[in-house]
Design goal:
The complex is a heterodimer of chains A (about 250) and B (about 80). Chain A is an alpha/beta fold. Chain A has a single domain, classed as Rossmann fold (3-Layer(aba) Sandwich), CATH 3.40.50.720. Chain A contains seven helices and seven strands, in the order E-H-E-H-E-H-E-H-E-H-E-H-H-E. Chain A has a seven-stranded parallel beta sheet, sandwiched between helices. In chain A, helix 1 crosses helix 7, helix 3 runs parallel beside helix 4 and helix 4 packs parallel to helix 5. Chain A is globular and about 45 Å long. The model of chain A has no long low-confidence stretch (mean pLDDT about 95). Chain B has one domain: Non-ribosomal Peptide Synthetase Peptidyl Carrier Protein, Chain A (Orthogonal Bundle). Chain B is about 55% helix and about 0% strand. Chain B is built from four helices and no strands. Chain B is globular, with a radius of gyration of 11 Å. The chains are: A alpha/beta (about 250), B mainly alpha (about 80). At the A-B interface, helix 6 of A face helix 2 and helix 3 of B.
């Protein structure tokens, strides 16, 4: 059957695969035929993803890619790959005035330095094949708008969108494509037990013209498009996925 | 920790409301200026001053400044 979105025969690395968006991307990519290498920090939750992967030949690796040790460990055990979905990320909800250096470092190391330096190491070790696709999960926060208490997160995502344009330009001769997805709020556990109450989150959904927050699968299908050969002529772009939030 | 100090620290998170309007029994959500930003600022202030992590839910279920003070004490 003709399917331009097939990932058959592609080896795809997914970071942050132990929960939420990363888990969904891993599961959906496997359903479209990809061979997955999933990574995350929590062994049990990563294994929960691993056992749900359709097909065979998948691998998992516990690593904290916000550190150089984690990046080196992960890259030592990797085969050559055809695509990466950079999903690992954290949120700190704090008014700007209260932010301190350790918190800013944590957000930048996890959301920006980690994925960028991992990409850098994978390129140095020649582990990214020609015609590969690199997908970064960014956000509307920091690229289109921001939210109260979200300044550090916005900074990390804005920085991602900036640097991928430079990377996309430099990797174009190898036909390696580099894109980001910029989702609005996605229903995951990232804000459970946080400074924002469930009631506020419920109210916030009303700001989305399509009537709901995004689901992890919504992001997964966008990632599949960017990882597949269907998006062969797309590089340096930011795919907006926000249920219409930024229309208003 | 003392309630008088806490009320002062609480009042500092507001930009427009006169600090004299704040007492331990003040129903903070009825203050016109109350907002989600101030709610997050209270949580951040409590973390900084008392090393206690309040949740959005703790604020939501509180009515007076003293209610929050009691939660902070109980979590300390």
């Amino acid at each position: 059957m003709f399917n331009p979105f097939s990932l058959d025969g592609k080896v795809i690395l997914v970071t942050g695969a132990s929960s939420g968006i990363g888990r969904s991307i891993a599961l959906e990519c496997a359903r479209l035929g990809a061979q997955l290498i999933i990574t995350g920090r929590n062994p049990e939750r990563l294994n929960d993803t691993y056992v749900q992967l359709e097909g065979t030949g998948h691998n998992k690796s516990i690593a904290d890619i916000s550190t150089d040790e984690g990046i080196n460990y992960l890259s030592e055990n990797l085969p050559q790959i055809n695509g990466v979905a950079h999903v690992a990320g954290i949120v700190i909800t704090k008014p700007f005035q209260f932010l301190n250096r350790p918190e800013l470092d944590l957000v930048m190391n996890t959301n920006f330095n980690g994925p960028i330096l991992l990409t850098n190491v994978l390129l140095k070790k020649n582990l990214i094949k020609k015609e590969s696709s690199l997908v970064f999960i960014s956000s509307i926060s920091g690229t289109m708008c921001s939210f109260i208490g979200n300044s550090a997160y916005s900074a990390s995502k804005g920085a991602l969108n900036g640097i991928i344009k430079g990377i996309a330009l430099e990797l174009a001769p190898k036909r390696i494509r580099v894109n980001s997805i910029i989702p609005g709020m996605i229903d995951t556990s990232i804000l459970n037990h946080s400074s924002i109450s469930d009631e506020d989150l419920f109210e916030d959904r009303k700001h989305y013209p399509l009537g709901r927050y995004g689901r992890p699968e919504d992001v997964a299908y966008a990632a599949i498009y960017l990882l597949s050969d269907a998006s062969n002529w797309i590089t340096g772009s930011n795919l907006l996925l926000d249920g219409g939030y930024t229309l208003k | 920790m003392e309630i008088e100090t806490f009320v002062k620290q609480f009042a500092l998170q507001f930009a427009e409301t006169d600090s004299k309007e704040f007492q331990s029994k003040t129903r903070f959500r009825e203050i016109e200026e109350w907002s989600s930003l101030i709610s997050l600022s209270i949580i951040a202030m409590v973390d900084e001053e008392y090393s206690v992590k309040l949740t959005g839910e703790d604020i939501r279920k509180s009515t007076t400044i003293n209610d929050i003070f009691e939660i902070v004490k109980s979590k300390k």
